[in-house]
Design goal:
Distance between the termini: 20 Å
Number of strands: 0
Shape: elongated
Order of helices and strands: HH
Number of helices: 2
Helix content: 25-40%
Strand content: under 5%
Radius of gyration: 16 Å
Length: 43
């Protein structure tokens, strides 16, 4: 599985941005064909 792990320095840079407005997060999910979506819904 590929993931993105920001460093502490990158998180501080994001925190310190002079930004107005909403911040949006997008989760891309990929489910196994053997009921993965149903299991995720139960979660």
């Amino acid at each position: 599985m590929v993931s993105i792990e920001p460093t502490g320095d990158q998180l501080r840079q994001l925190r310190d941005l002079d930004h107005e407005g909403p911040i949006v997060m997008l989760n891309l999910l990929k489910f196994k064909p053997d009921g993965g979506a149903e299991l995720y819904e139960r979660y």
